[in-house]
Every structure is written in structure tokens, then in C-alpha cells.
Input
Amino acid sequence: MTNVTASMVKDLRDKTGAGMMDCKAALAESNGNLEAAIDWLRKKGLAKAAKKAGRVAAEGLIGVTVHGDTGALVEVNAETDFVARNDQFKEFVTQVAKVAREVGGDVDKIHDMPLQKDGAKIKDVVTEMVAKIGENIAVRRAVALSVTPGVVSAYVHNAADGSKELGKIGVLVGLRSTADKGKLAALGKQIAMHIAAAAPLALTPEHLSPELIARERGIQGDVARQSGKPEAVIEKMIEGRMRKFYEESVLLSQVFVIDGETPVGKVVEKASKEWGAPIEIAGYYRFAVGEGIEKLESDFADEVKQMAGH
Output
């Protein structure tokens, strides 16, 4: 039998918000497997983890840049938010984003490219900054998006000092269309704002991984069977629950946060009719600082003891 440690319980609590004893029981039932424990809690109605993003712990900034029909996102991490607020760090992220756009978001190429500012290779600039600041700094990931014909729009949330290019969340959206580019850019920004807030898992149900769909269907099936109803009724319940899952998780089906009532797909359709040209969301990217990165945490048992005054 797997030994369930306090740190394992804390990790599961951070991801699900379930109670300590429930988390301990879930881990025991799942032989310490975190993902299986999350599913166990969901089946018991003790956690809502359909769109868990993991505990965001790393610091840094997302850099966004758009030029013409091409845009890029880059995430640069530091160990503390103090460094992330440093002007030198912010300027570095801005420059790296521009390089990312030029090389198509390839991180390996980014490291070997010179900064526009002084010509030094980015990997060498990182080394110098680490030595000077005394913290680890890393260009973690980058993407680029191009659309022809059409536009690429961007949005940053929790902007750094009011910047339009630096923040804690960055989004790129590509709209393919021959419609007026000014109108497309404005619509694209609104959709980018929606994506920042709603964090869709995919553009359409077809873009979701088969593994994710199968996992969700399995969870909803187990939950539905707890009702004790006939299997034919349960199948209908599962289909209803999956429709709701898609409505909440898929971009074109999500309710547009700007008006709070229209699905995003219908918003795009309406614009297409009004502007006299088909409009397609060609793709999107959403980066949030520290997604999937865990900081080293102090021992959970020790924290409990300290809170209890021992």
C-alpha cells in the first residue's frame, strides 16, 4: 500500500480544494496517483477539476507582440515577483517577444538569436542577468501565430505597469477573413479578452484530445450511475453532461464574456454577416505565468505544526 505523505495531500488539496481527509482517502484509494485521486474526488462530488490548470507558483512575465498578420507570445520566468517587476527584466521580455515573432516561436532558435538592443545572444544575456541579479531566469516557452488573409490580435491581463505587451496572462487570436482589418482587430481583441478570462481547452470539440474526452465521459458516467437509474437513462444523462462540458470548455461554444449571453461562435457568425465576409478563428494561444510549474514548498506537516503553535 502506498504511503500517503503530507506533501501529497497538500498537492491534491491545492489542485482540487477538497478537504484534507478526503484528499488522504482519495490518494489511498488511488495508490498515490494524483490524477486518479482527482478523478476519485470528482466522482464523489468533492472536487471540481474539469479545467484544473495546476497550482501556478513560478514568477515572471508573459511578453506579447504583434506586427501585421503575425504575433508571438513568450514566457520568461524568474524566482521572485520582485525581479519580474525590474525594468531590466521587463525590457528583456519585450525584446525576446520580438525575436520570438521573427523565428516562429522556436525556443532553441530564440536562445541563439541576438537581442535587438545590443547584439548579444539571448542565452548569453540570460547568463549575465543571472549572475547580476542572483536569481535563476529562463526563457521557458514561446509560440508564434500568422494568419493570411486576416489579422492577429493580442491581449495581456494583469499588465505590468499598464503595458500592452507585458502581463501575467497573454493571449493571441488569429482571425482569417477579407473583412475590414480594423474591425477584425477589434473583434479579435475582444475574443482574446474572453480567452484570458474563460481559459477554453480547445477551439472545438474536435480539437480536444480523445484521451481527455474519454476521461471526462468516464467520470460523468460514474457520477450518473450513482443515481441508480436504468442504463438507457444514464446514457442520456451522460450525453447531457458532455454537452455541458463542451459548452464550458470549448471556445466556440462558451458564452462570450463581453455580453454574457451569446456563444462565441454566434458572435463570429454575426460579424461575418454584418461585414459581408466569412470570418474564421484560425487559432489561438493562451499563456499564464507559471502554468504547470511548482515551487518548492515547505513541508505541509511542519506548516500545520507551526499554525498550531508547536
Notes: Strands lie at 59-67, 70-78, 138-146, 150-157, 166-167, 169-176, 280-288. The domain at 1-55 is CATH 1.10.8.10 (Helicase, Ruva Protein; domain 3). Confidence is low (pLDDT under 50) at residues 48-57, 296-301, 303-310. Residues 27 and 33 are 7 Å apart (CA to CA).
